[in-house]
Amino acid sequence: MKVLIVGSGGREHAIAMSVAKSSKVDKIYCAPGNAGIGQIAECVPIGAMEFDKLATFAKETAIDLTIIGMDDPLVGGVVDAFEAEGLRVFGPNKAAAILEGSKAFSKDLMKKYNIPTAAYENFDNPEAALAYLETAKMPIVLKADGLALGKGVLICNTLEEAKAGVQEIMMDKKFGSAGNQMVVEEFMTGREVSVLSYVDGKTIKIMSSAQDHKRAKDGDQGLNTGGMGTFSPSPFYTKEVDDFCQKYIFQPTVDAMAAEGRPFKGIIFFGLMITEDGPKVLEYNARFGDPEAQVVLPRMKNDIIEVMEACIDGTLDQIDLQFEDNAAVCVVLASDGYPVSYQKGFEIKGLENFEDKDGYYCFHAGSKLNDEGKIVTNGGRVLGITAKGADLKEARANAYKATEWIDFENKYMRHDIGKAIDEA
């Protein structure tokens, strides 16, 4: 079969690598893709938000399955556009993707269906938000309602910081229209854990847990980024936590979406906080995490195409989802200065070191082929260096060893990805 993947980052490279392993697939396309994806798929110069062009390409090329990797097109309704043309596509439709597209919607859904989450209030008026903050307990969390590249969350320790945050999100519109509405949420403490799942509208199958590192600098200092690294599984996601989440969070979320007339088919990413009062939902995403996909998918034993088709067909209950009994760590190699300002266009050297190395992966996030045929940096997050190991400590050591195989000017990374595992 022919498969089209929509997206251009490390997540889509990880998806492409899994798709390439499927015995069902003989041709992969990616729109728009990147230099790394281009080594296993044919990259097509169509943007992820060009729905008509994507659907036309899928029809003309006789694509059997399209996989949507990114949040923007899902929230924008790309699945609806494909389904209107009779095309087979993996991902939630627009009505279901609102689970990620609007934090206000998801918080209201959790409140209505008693799914554990932080206490909150929604605001569409900055003056009302400012008045509320005058009596609120600090620290407090401000969240832009819409999509903001994973950066629309501000943790404010003082009233002054919170007021400045309202100014930034709702008045200065730092995150664009995502800040038209804002969620003000109680600050929770505990361990953060990411749990990805496959969903077919009624059945949910949980993937291996992971843990992301969002801050730009070591010690969780610096600005929020799209993610500087991750590891899987999380030692903090215990059997007791899983039992609780299965009963009170995972299935109830799927059932709630169905009850709202928004049956969800695709990937639900649960961002959890393991608090003293038990696990609570921080956020939902409607697609694979990036870089969580880079540590979860390499450990999945199943044929990804079989699982995705079961989600589309409503037969996920027949899939025995299995993961390797090992661990993986991903360290992001970024351009120094990310996420604010950085230079790009530098040649990436050492990529050949990953060829035929079992258990080591180099996922491209921001790379491209230049006019001279060289692979150069083309973004803030450039590569996701992933390695597997018998346990997390071995995987971490392997991943950091592999970061030394790559070199480019202004290469930057955190040196403490997965360090929490030493404390588990």
Explain what this protein looks like in three dimensions.
With 424 residues, this protein is of the alpha+beta class. The chain has twelve helices and 22 strands. The protein has helices at 10-20, 51-60, 71-76, 78-84, 94-101, 103-112, 126-133, 159-171, 239-259, 293-296, 304-313, 392-403; strands at 2-7, 27-32, 42-43, 65-68, 89-90, 120-123, 140-144, 153-156, 182-186, 191-200, 204-212, 215-217, 221-224, 229-232, 265-275, 278-285, 327-335, 360-364, 367-369, 375-377, 381-389, 411-412. The strands form five sheets. Strands 10, 11, 14, 15, 16, 17, 18, 21 and 22 form a nine-stranded antiparallel beta sheet that branches. Strands 3-2-1-4-5 form a five-stranded parallel beta sheet, with helices on both faces. The longest helix has 21 residues, at 239-259. The chain is globular. The N and C termini lie far apart (44 Å).
